[in-house]
Each structure stands twice: as structure tokens, then as C-alpha cells.
Design a protein that fits this description.
The structure holds two protein chains of two kinds.
Chain A (H helix, E strand, L loop, with lengths): L3 E10 L2 E11 L4 E5 L6 H8 L7 E6 L2 E2 L4 H5 L2 E4 L11 H11 L4 H14 L15 H11 L7 E5 L7 H16 L3 E6 L2 H7 L2 E6 L2 E6 L1 H7 L4 E6 L2 H11 L4 E3 L4 E5 L5 H14 L4 E7 L3 H24 L1
Parallel strand pairs in A: 3-8, 3-9, 6-7, 7-8
Antiparallel strand pairs in A: 1-2, 1-4, 4-5, 9-10, 11-13, 11-14, 12-13
Helix pairs in contact in A: 3-4, 5-6
Chain B lengths: L3 H21 L2 H21 L12 H14 L1 H15 L1 H7 L6 H27 L8 H28 L5 H14 L12 H9 L1 H13 L9 H30 L3
Helix pairs in contact in B: 1-6, 2-3, 2-6, 3-6, 3-7, 3-10, 4-7, 4-8, 6-7, 7-10, 7-11, 10-11
Classes of the chains: A alpha/beta, B mainly alpha.
Amino acid sequence: MSPLSARGVRKRYRDTQALDGLDLEVTAGTVHALLGPNGAGKSTAVNVFATLTRPDAGEVRVGGHDAVRHPARVRSTIGLVGQSAALDEALHGRENLVMFGRLHGLAKPDAVRRAGELLDAFGLAEPGDRKVSGYSGGMRRRLDIAAGLVTRPQLLFLDEPTTGLDPRARHEVWEMVRQVVADGTTVLLTTQYLDEADQLADTVTVLGAGRVIAEGTPSALKSDLGGDRVIVTATGPDDLARMAGVLGSAAVVTSDRLEVTVEAGAAGGGAAVVEVVRALDSAGIKVDDLLLRRPTLDEVFLHLTAESAHLDADLGRVGSS
Amino acid sequence: MTTVLATIRQSWVITWRDLKHWQREPWGPVFGILFAVMMLLIFGYLFGGAIEMPGGGAYLPYLLPGVLALTMMFGIDGTMAVVTEDTKRGVTNRFRSLPMSGLAVPLGRAVADLGNSAVQLGVLMLGGLLIGWRIEGSFLEAAVAVGLLLWLRLAMLWLGIFLGLTLRLEGALTMVQVLVWPLGFCSSLFVSPETMPGWLGFLAAWNPVSATATACRDLFGNPTGITSGMLADHAMLLAVAWPAVLLAVFVPLSVRAFRRLG
């Protein structure tokens, strides 16, 4: 049974169509990332899936339960970790976990035992008996995620879990997410960090304006955008201009970084490097640096959202004529 | 599944949490009590000498039940502040994502706040006794008066929960904190409505807190400052009915608002 399946979900807030016919299918035991800029509808989607927000239209089934008709059943199978750390600042870390466990219906001894397990598992045993108000951002976030895990949910929602964290804390949270998935929980996470989706997700759904604009594995999305690219750095502005001339019209010049980017053709990255080096060598142009790389998820994202913007513009024209 | 028993248990967890707050961060409630004592002293000593009671009589016995009722009414913004903070932090949303009764969170909050208010009342009444206020009525009458005050607080508390859940504007809390002043003063709490211009006196008499204050004055055996009219005849009935009406409106609205927050 699919942990989450959504079809044609729509939600409107006054003058914004937050979700505009969203379809989503999450596979059990995987990390599924919803990727998109602010306002793409990521948080609204999570709130609808977690029964906090009632959709205007569409069907949402979580763990086989209809989220609109049986929200209570859905709530007992999910864990929600929202955008801000939803913790009680005056309570100790352990007390927070015990409280959420008891509200989930655990008896007190069970809630205490589970809180201890979670604190141990995520390296929070030591600060567990201090007030949350003294925690660092990373500790707070990890405790917050642990609070979403008190009843071993089948599906855990993580809404932008690393927003505002420093790189070290981010890696700790990533480690924690991997651990959670290894324990058998399915994770749906939203993020605007493309490397985060790249690091964690088995499947990425790119959202724009409340709709799915692309979906696939991180590497499939990357290859959608085209092949490798060769980036050559010139030693100075004069060389840069000459380079651009030699490498032909397909070369893209980034003057402020003294870079020329050439997309590799069907022959692949290696052949492209040889070709570029040969051309530059026979023209006698010195090179500061040369790099072969795959497109980043950032590029995929910009590419896809730009495509979707064109589509919107086209639709707009059709609609107004 | 949410049964009555589960709701009670969940509410108790929320109450425990709120009580824990006062243990860890007692300054809020302590300041609340100091504030009420300050009001008592300001009106008792600063303004009290200049205030004449219709039909004579001392001001302090008239004033004290008024300060007690005002303290109950000012509970609105205290409750609202905590609810707003929980919503802002996302704690409310986490509660909403749990398989628990929509009633449990506000109910737990209500029990904790009532406990806090009972302590406030105790301190204020002791303070009043120290500066010369006397309970002339029987013990039973005094107990009923305290009951009426807590009944008013319960209604104000649910109003606060409702406002905290629904007013999402930045600064809504400040607005309410300012508005409770004219609402509190346009009443029989500090001066008798009979000394006010007719229309204002009419409004003041209809203020729910006036009913509670007047009924408490009666029960404590203190001067009511009221010689005729609706309050003189029906203070007790109104002191029971007003909070009941407010509760009948704001309990269901709050539970609905809690569920519909998203």
C-alpha cells in the first residue's frame, strides 16, 4: 500500500492558487523530496497531507486512509515536523518528547522509555535534561524531528528541515534522516536546497506554482537537462574574448568569472575536453583552469522553472485572446 | 479514537505542561499578581480619596471586588498571548497533527489558567484584608462570590483562546491588551454607573464584568454603589448568565478554529 497518494489536489487562499492540481505518489521506504522555490506550494501540500489543511478538491490517501474523511486515522500513522521547531522552550528536551508521546496516546512509562530511546539514538541524551531554550539550532532541529518520531510513524513529513542551519548541523540532520529511513520510515521532505534533495532523495518532485513540473530520480533529472559541460577559465579578459571566438557560437561566456562553458555533444564529456584543448592549443591560448562537470540540480531547477514560466505565458496568451 | 477519557488524559498533559511553565518561568504569573496589587493600591489610595460613593459609604469595600473582577477580565490577553505564541512557533500545528481531541488543548489550557487565577484571587483577597477590606457576608456567600469570579475568568479565558487562534495579524495581541482597558473601565468596577452620563451608565451596567462585580459586592456584604435598575435587581442572575452565554459562543468557535487553523 502506498504511504501517500494524491490526485488532483487543489487549494486556494484568497488570491493565490497554492495547489493547482497536484498529483503525487510516494513509494514505501524511500525519501521523496518536494523541491521548489518559496510559494511553489510545498508547505501547503504537506499541510494538506498531514490533515492540517482541508483541500478544495482532489483526493489524498495516507497509509490507505482518506485524509479528508478520516483525518484521525491519518494522524495516528504520520509524524509532522513543520518549518519552525515546534517545541516547548521552557520544557527539557526529554519532557517535550514525553509530552508528545503521551498526547499520541502512549502510557507514561512507555512515553518515558521511547523518549530515552530517541534521545540516545540521535545524540541528544546529554542535553536531554536541559531546557530547550538553551539548545543550538541543530540540536533543536534534531529534537524536533525526534518529536515527530515518538510513535514510529509510517510516514514522516519534514518541511524544510535544514532551513537556517549551519553546514555542520545540516549534515547532522541529513545523517538523522538516513537513519530514520534505514529504520523503515518513509520520508516526504520539502526543500529549497537542491543539494539536499540530491543528497537524500530517491525521488524528486519539482513543484512550481502548485503543480508538478518535473519528477524523477536526481540523476535522471540532471540528464534531462543535457550532457556534461566543459568549463574553461581564461587568464585574462583578452584571452577570454579570443577563447570565445575559437570555441564557436555554442560557447557561453561568463565574463565576471572569466569562464567559457561548452556543452558536450552526444560524443560525451571526454571527447569534448579533447576537442576544446586541441582548439585552444592550436590557437596558442593559455588556460588558467579547465573543468568537466555534470549539471547541478540548481541548473535543472532553473531550467525547469523557466520552462514552466514560458508555459504559463503561453497559456496566458491563449486565455486572454 | 478520541473518547471522553482520552480527552481528559490529553487535557491533563497540556495542563501539566502549562503548570511546568510557571515553575520554570514564574515571572509572568508573578507579574500578573503584582499588577493587580498595584491596581488595588492606585485606586485604593491614589484616586480613592477623591471618589464619592452614591449614597455614602467607604470606597475600599466597593473597590476590592471590582479589582478582583478586573483581574479576571485581564486574563483575556494573558491566555491569548500564550495561544498566539504556540501558534507562531508551530506547536499548535504539531498538536493538530496528533490523533487527539480538538477540545483537549484549549481545555488543558483552561484548567491551568483557572488554577493560576485562583492563586491570584487568593493573594488579592489577602492583600485586601491587610489594608482594611472586610468580608461581611457568610463563608458560603464568600465562596459563591469566588466561584462567580472564576466563572467569569473561564469565559474570558475561552474568549482569549478564540482570539489567539483567529487573530493572526501582527500586533493583534497589543490591540487586545489596549482594548481591555476601556472595556474594563466602562463598567461598575471602579465607579458606580449611577455617577456616569445616562448612556454611558447604561453601557457600563450591561458590561458582563459589572454583573460579576456587583454580585460579588452583594455576597461579600460590601456596598454595591447601585440603588436601582437592572443591576440592582438581577446582578446575581446576570453574573451567572453572562459568562454562560460567552462560553456557549466561544467554546464551540474555539474548537472549530483549532481544527480549521490551516
